[in-house]
Amino acid sequence: MPERVAHILADYAIEVRKLAYSLPSGVGETAALRLSEEMAHDAGLWLSRSSAARSHLPSASPSL
Fold first, then answer.
1. What are the tens digits of pLDDT across the range 38-64?
2. CA distances from 57 to 22, 30, 40, 51, 62 (A)
3. What are phi and psi of 28, to 5 degrees?
4. Which alpha helices (H) appear in 1-62, and where do they start and end?
5. Domain locations in the chain?
């Protein structure tokens, strides 16, 4: 996975997390949060193994 793709995946993980908190009545919240965590984890793994990666991923916690 190229570094740019890993950063895009991390950005989408944050958006999925934000979406999870905005779903009516918590419908699908657990699944969306799980997906967000998996996306952020996978992106983080690739970046931590990449010698070219010098920056850190943004936090997956929502900024309200």
1. 999 999 998 888 755 455 555 555 555
2. 23, 22, 8, 15, 14
3. 75, 5
4. 3-22, 29-49
5. 3-49
